[in-house]
Hints:
Layout: H1 26-34, E1 41-42, E2 55-56, H2 78-94
Antiparallel strand pairs: 1-2
Amino acid sequence: MTDVSDQPVGVVIASVGAITPHGGSAEALWDGVRAGRVAISPVRGLPMGEYQTTLGGEVTEPRPPGYDYAPGCDTRDPSVDFALAAGCDCVIALGDG
C-alpha cells in the first residue's frame, strides 16, 4: 500500500463539457442555470411505469460525436455518444495550448 501525504492536493479544472436537458453544451447548461430555468419535465423517451415518478431531466436532442465508434461496433449507445461529445467539447475548449 502507498503512503498518502497529509499535504493538501491542488486541483485545476481546465475545461468542461456537458450534455444536459438545458442543451448540448456547457454554455447552454450555465445559461439555463443562471436564468433559473428548470430542466425537469415529463419523460417521453423512456417507459416510466416501473418508477414512482414520470418526471426527469431528459436529454431530448441527440448529440453524436463527430466520428464513428471503433471498427466492428454495429450499435451506438446514446450515453456513450453524450460522454464522447462532452469530452470533445473539453478538448476543443482547451485549444492548442
